[in-house]
Design a protein that fits this description.
Length: 280
C-alpha cells in the first residue's frame, strides 16, 4: 500500500501556531505602551493591578489561540480524532466500523482517496477488504499474471470466516472489475530468530535482558508490515538501549544481514536468546 502515508511523521502544519504566554504578554505590554506611554512606570511591578489585568487578558488570548489550533487540526487527516475524523471520512463515503480505532479509520480514508483514481487499483481492493471485516489488519493486492488479482489478508486472528467475507465483498456486483479473476488468501508469519551477546555498562539495570526482550517484542509489533524487509542493523538499534555497551550475534543467521519477505508474509519475533556477556 504505497499510497498510505505515515501521517504521524508529517511536520506540524503552519496553520497551527506555537503558543507562548510570555510572548503574548510582551506584545500586549508593547501595544499598551504605544497607546499610553505613561504606563511604563508601573508595568515592571508584578503587584501592580494593571499588570495582573494584562496577564489575565493574555491568558484568555492564549486559550482562544489554543482553540483555533484545535479547530485547525480537526480539519487535517493527520490530526483529526473521534467525531472530527468521522466527518472527514464522511466526505469520502467512509464510515467508522464498530469498534474501529482512529488509526485504522485513517488508513481506510487514505485508501478511499487513492482508490478514487479508478476501480481495480490496489488501494481499491485493500479498502474493500478492510471494510468487509474489522479482523483485517491490512490487505495487499498483487497481480500474479494478467487478468488475475490475488488479495492477501493480514488478519488479527486467523479464521475461515474473514477470507470468505472479503471474497464475497470483492466479487460482488459493482466491486470486481469485469474480466478479472480475484482470489483471496491470508498472509503467513515469517519468524525472525535472534541470538545475541549483550555487553553491559557499569550502570546497567539488573533486569536489562528482560527489558531488551520487551523492546524487541514492541519493535516488531510496531514495525511489522506485509512484505517488509527486516535488516539486522534495525534489530541492533533495538538492542542498543540504555545500559548496553555492545552487541554482537552468534552465527550469521540469527538474524541474517537481511530477511527478505514475500508480499504475503509479515515479520514476527521468533526465538530469542540473549546472552549476558558481562561488563565492558
Amino acid at each position: 500500500m504505497s499510497s498510505i502515508l505515515d501521517t504521524s511523521a508529517l511536520p506540524s502544519p503552519a496553520v497551527v501556531e506555537p503558543l507562548d504566554f510570555e510572548a503574548i504578554v510582551a506584545d500586549i505590554k508593547a501595544d499598551l505602551l504605544a497607546r499610553y506611554p505613561e504606563a511604563a512606570t508601573v508595568l515592571d511591578l508584578e503587584s501592580e493591578p494593571l499588570v495582573k489585568l494584562l496577564e489575565s487578558f493574555a491568558f484568555r488570548e492564549l486559550l482562544f489561540r489554543a482553540r483555533v489550533n484545535d479547530a485547525a487540526r480537526a480539519h487535517l487527516l493527520a490530526f483529526a480524532t473521534g467525531a472530527d475524523l468521522d466527518h472527514l471520512g464522511a466526505l469520502f463515503g467512509v464510515s467508522r466500523m464498530a469498534g474501529e480505532h482512529d488509526e485504522r479509520l485513517r488508513v481506510r480514508i487514505q485508501l478511499r482517496i487513492a482508490a478514487l483514481s479508478g476501480q481495480g487499483t490496489g488501494e481499491h481492493y485493500a479498502l474493500v477488504a478492510m471494510t468487509a471485516s474489522a479482523n483485517v489488519r491490512a490487505a495487499y493486492a498483487i497481480q500474479p499474471r494478467p487478468g488475475y488479482v490475488h488479495v492477501v489478508l493480514w488478519l488479527h486472528s486467523m479464521d475461515t470466516e474473514t477470507p470468505d467475507a472479503v471474497a464475497a465483498a470483492i466479487n460482488s456486483e459493482g466491486t470486481r472489475m469485469l474480466g478479472v479473476v480475484v482470489t483471496v488468501g491470508t498472509a503467513t508469519p515469517r519468524p525472525v530468530d535472534i541470538h545475541a551477546r549483550i555487553w553491559r555498562t557499569a550502570d546497567a539495570s539488573p533486569d536489562l535482558l528482560q527489558k531488551l526482550q520487551q523492546r524487541l517484542a514492541t519493535g516488531f509489533a510496531e514495525r511489522a508490515a506485509l512484505g517488509r524487509t527486516v535488516a539486522r542493523s534495525w534489530v541492533t538499534t533495538l538492542l542498543h538501549a540504555d545500559g548496553v555497551a555492545a552487541v554482537d550475534y552468534v552465527g550469521e543467521d540469527a538474524p541474517p544481514a537481511t530477511t527478505t519477505l514475500f508480499s504475503d508474509q509479515f515479520p514476527t519475533l521468533g526465538a530469542v536468546q540473549l546472552i549476558d556477556a558481562g561488563l565492558m
